[in-house]
Amino acid sequence: MPLPGAYVYRNSQRESEVRPALYEPAVCLVAQGAKAVFYGREVVRYDPAHVLISALDLPLRAQVLEASPKEPFLCLKLVLDPVEVAELATRVYPEGVLPGEAQPIFVGKTTPALLDAALRFLKALEEPNEQKLLAPLYRQELLIRLLQESPALARLNLLDPHLRRIARAANHIRVHFREPLDVRALARLAHMSESAFYEHFKRVTSLTPLQYQKALRLQEARKLLLDGLSVVQVAREVGYASLSQFTREYRRFFGAPPSRDAARLREQGGLVASQAG
Q: What is the reported pTM?
């Protein structure tokens, strides 16, 4: 897409297996087909009637449920800027939003107004002048419509201080996933005790800090293997000091040893995307 933070995804076949995927803070609007995200023990399905909202970097598992060559899975993804969303939320809810439960990944209703804003946004991207002048306004309208329909997004940005703190720590892990994990330093970054940090991190992400780091490492390892690096090179590159530990954890995560998994994916002709849509 010509505008940073906007992507269109297409998949022409239903996926037979659940695959790892990294869900960043984003909105995913489906035009056709259906997809599911596995968050902890929950299955979150999104389709033309349901928009997916992710408010945090989450290494999860996903599966395209409905797609075919004639009717491929089509999805528009807009990456969210938490600062922008929080600012818009204060305008949509000037008197504050009512408290309530909200998870960092959930679905809302795809309303006609939301679809209309998305279509005008996509159309504006086709013309250079409209792309510069109008596309940002339509994108902002889309986010406002989303906040109006899904107060949970506003709650996450305005009422959940733990989410913002955990998001800061999660981003640190994502940037430094190759380095040894220091839970004490992460807790200080989140301004929490170690026990409170561990508890809230698992509540928000459905993973422990170590599981979160491991998922990031192994997803990056899979990409590097498909790029042609050797197993030894990949293990070192993603932060493993022990090759046997890397191989063992890779097999447990993907269901096959590194070399066999990479060969299978090459035979299928597909590079598994690390960014979700």
A: 0.81
